[in-house]
Design a protein that fits this description.
Number of strands: 5
Radius of gyration: 15 Å
Helix content: 25-40%
Strand content: 25-35%
Largest sheet: 5 strands, mixed
Structural class: alpha+beta
Length: 151
């Protein structure tokens, strides 16, 4: 049974999305949900303009309760298989531990299947142990080490 509805994020959703990110972070964030930095609107516009990107808002009974970004990535490995990348998965703190995150992830995985992806991947901060258990319960394997270089 699906309890949530999904829609593309719009400019008025930015404070909600940034608030979810800041509320759910395990390290100091440079993001400010009240900020009107033009980079946020530009990033959302770029996502919206790219057919291989989606920033989605999950709603329960018309009320936004979560968000996530999907990226569809072509690749030359595995016979040209496309990959789905799930990022910025956040559920409002007052709605966590109610099954909404699992429902959002199942929907995101199905969306990737519909787009022809043969694999779904994500990254998660090493300090987010509860999130890691959550992803493993959903069937994700911790198969790779990730690396980042801040530029």
């Amino acid at each position: 049974m699906t309890r949530l509805a999904y829609r593309s994020a719009t400019l008025p959703d930015l404070p909600l999305i940034l608030g979810l990110i800041v509320d759910d972070t395990v390290e100091p964030s440079i993001d400010d949900p009240a900020a009107a930095h033009p980079g946020y609107a530009a990033a959302l516009a770029a996502i919206d303009a790219d057919p291989n990107q989606e920033m989605l808002v999950a709603e329960f009974e018309g009320e936004p309760i979560g968000c996530f970004q999907l990226s569809y990535i072509p690749g030359l490995m595995r016979q040209g298989m496309w990959r789905g990348l799930i990022e910025a998965v956040h559920v409002r703190s007052d709605r966590r531990n109610s099954g909404y995150g699992s429902e959002m992830m199942r929907w995101a995985i199905q969306r990737c299947r519909e787009r022809g992806c043969g694999l779904v991947q994500l990254t998660s901060n090493k300090a987010r142990h509860d999130a890691h258990r959550f992803y493993v319960r959903l069937g994700f394997a911790q198969s790779h080490e990730g690396f980042k270089l801040l530029l």
